[in-house]
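Appendix B. Chain record.
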Amino acid sequence: MKYGGILRIGFKLLVNDRAKFSALLIGITFAVFLMMQMTAMFAGILNRAYSTVTNVGAAMWIMDPAVNTASSAIPLPDYLLDAVRSMDGVSYAVPLFIGGAQVRLASGTYQSVSVVGLDDASLFGRPEMEQGNIQDIYADDAFIVVNDAEFSKLENPKLGTTFELNDHRGTIVGIARVAANGLNGVPTVYTTYSRAIEYIPSTRFTISYILVQPKSDADATGIQQQVAKLGYVAFTKAEFNTRITDFYTYKTGIGTNILLMTVISFLVGLSISGQTFYTFILENLEKFGALKAIGAKGRELVYMILFMATFTALTGYGLGVGLVTLMILIAKSRLPNYAAMITFWNLGLAFGMVILIAGISSYIGIRKVLKIEPFDIFRG
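Structure tokens predicted for this chain:
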């Protein structure tokens, strides 16, 4: 390697000063930990925010233009369902009800629940069953409960457990699991669409969403245009998720607060590493001057400093990612509702910020080293 010798010298200079090297690692590790933790929490919140879209799995969702999240549905008129079913490119369309209710448990306590009413004929969007048979949902007063982090709030019901919902009797006929837990911290129960609108008071319009399966992917655009002419909007699954993401990012305090904490974490890491690296350079000016005196070129010293800063930054990045991963694993094992999750997006964001920290720290050191003259060192 052309610069192997000078890089080895730089590595020894770096690790031999254990105090400064440890301070650099701690600063970057702490910054990466905070950045990863904040963005992982945001990713977990978003994953739960569009859990309904994920769990139902419909290709297209038709809704009122004012809807921002799956849990804030605005009822649609019944005639819209018939109109959608007659549109070109629609394979089938079914109604979906999503609403909230208070249930009275066997112990006498009340608990808020999210009720999902599935199309009576097709049961499109039904969850995967753990216990019981999905066909039992057609029995009198039948409900299926989701076994997730909120399951215990219903006092860990079993098949046959009864409860009361708006003076109606409900019976648990199945226990199911879903791909993603909800965000609002309330248990979820499934029943038929007709039973949901009978048990839960609503406006004269009862359809929360119309779920559409296009005949082909190419038909999605045409369906959206036809729905728009009726004054409503049709989103694909990805588009609805994007709309929910935009809402939580830009229209609530969640995105702003997490962005602010991420920037603060970056500034903390930059200030600690930049100041420590600059101090390290000052304390080793004589060594850099000696290297210049024996023939080291300015370009070689630049490579040395870049290597030192990059090595420290990447080591701190690895330690930070490992630390936050360990913390999330421990937290999830202790707290079922913990929503943080590591994605390629927050890994890439943290990596980019670490590289930026390394670049700024290197620039500070390079400016000082390039100005040094061997004559000044030996004269001192």
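Further analysis of this model is presented in Appendix C.
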